[in-house]
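Notes from the 1:1 (GR / supervisor)

We went over the backlog. Supervisor wanted to see one worked example end to end before approving the batch request, so GR pasted a single chain during the call. The sequence is below; no edits were made to it. Supervisor asked that the structure be written out right there so they could see what the output format looks like.
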Amino acid sequence: MSDVHEQQVKNLKIAVNKHCNLSGADLCKEIEKASMPVIEWLAYLRSSEATGIADILLTGIHSTVIEAAGCLCLGLARSALFGMRAEIDMLLAWLYFKDHPIEWEYVQSTGEGYKLKQELIRHLEFYVPKYKERFGLLQQCKKRTELEPYKLLSAHIHSQSVHCVPSIGALSSLVSPLSDCNQCIQIQKEVTEYLNDVLFSCYADKWASLPKSIVSDTTSRLTGKQKKVFFSL
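Structure output shown during the call:
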């Protein structure tokens, strides 16, 4: 390794260590807090809704939450966003493939047949009773600023605008400013709410067995009339 490369790596290590020491623990705490409803949902889904088909995707979702937390601890904000979009991709895929063993096996054996996001949403709207109506109501009383956080994350991943194109020079510039990492925490909150709304729209009929915090937090956004669309009072 040349002296230039050695210095680049040295500066990267210094930047990462500084970021970890100053902000790592706080960022880890905040992203765990932002992700907690998803973690609670995953525990419920594993214990009550898993079919033995595609359940590895539930493990994958939990893993990407951890991955995003680790990336932010290191200051790798852009990398954290990749994990956040994967949470959405895998959750929607699980909702479909858990009931489609032949299609799941085909994907595993050929690498083909995976479903795109819009296909998966249409499947939920067509086959899950009241899904479209319930999700529409939750969209009306959302707390998140982004209606579709997936769209924002895709813009970053595909560098779709001048605001999303990476600008990296020295290796040490991979470590993002704390302000960017804090924005990632907010994006994780929005991803969490989006996934919660998808799942609550699917499983609201089973509200008695859902985590109490999930039911309480979600229904607090609804009026009495709206609640009747989700479950009988």
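Supervisor's comment: The CA atoms of residues 144 and 193 lie 7 Å apart.
Batch request approved.
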